[in-house]
Amino acid sequence: MKKIIIIAITLIAGFAAQAQTSTTASQTVNLVLTNAIDMTFTANGNATGPLVSMPFNTTNDYASGVTSSAQQLKVRSNKNFNVTVKSSATNFSYTGTTTPAPTMPVASVLDVKVSANGTGGAIAGTFANYTDISTTAQNMITGGTYGGNQTFSVMYQATPGWSYPAGTYAVDVVYTATQQ
Question: What is the pLDDT of residues 139-174, one digit of tens each?
């Protein structure tokens, strides 16, 4: 009888010990995502691109205009997006020796086109060809696809003609990427 009681106590103790050898706990993890977008020039990784210099050295440059090299931009966005372009001013700023400073309008002199499009979107309007830049934002790319490396390239063409004296004429071109 004593053996049976000892065996019973051992079995009960064994079951009790096994029931308490593991336990679990759980926790909910929430990822709180916000909409995010940025655009940089790939040449320097900044939102302000490197200087684009377009020298007019020959009479042929004045007669035909000058074209820049391609300038690549990269958009990173977690939603589809559009890109617009505009100039920061109606007229170029002038640095030179002519007084009074000449007034060169941006819209009739400086054009831009999308020379490569890896955004997954469509080139808007006439931007597949050189198109005037104005102070009004114009759709350049529509329906760009979300992602971390959506690139496009632009090229500039300047045709000031013969009406302006020597000097440096400058204007900022502003690109804006907006999530849809």
Answer: 999 999 999 999 999 999 999 999 999 999 999 999
What ranges do the domains of the chain cover?
Answer: 35-179
Q: DSSP readout, 63-123?
A: HH-EEPPPEEEEEEESS-EEEEEEESSSB-EEESS-SSPP--BSTTTEEEEEEEEESSSEE
Cβ count within 10 A of residue 125: 12
Whether residue 99 has pLDDT greater than 80: yes
| Beta strand 110-118 pairing with 93-95 | unpaired
Domain 35-179 in CATH 2.60.120? The answer is no
What is the residue whose two structure tokens read 């000031």? 160
Cα–Cα separations (whole angstroms), residue 99 to 36, 62, 94, 103, 161: 47, 22, 10, 11, 20
- Tell me the pTM: 0.85
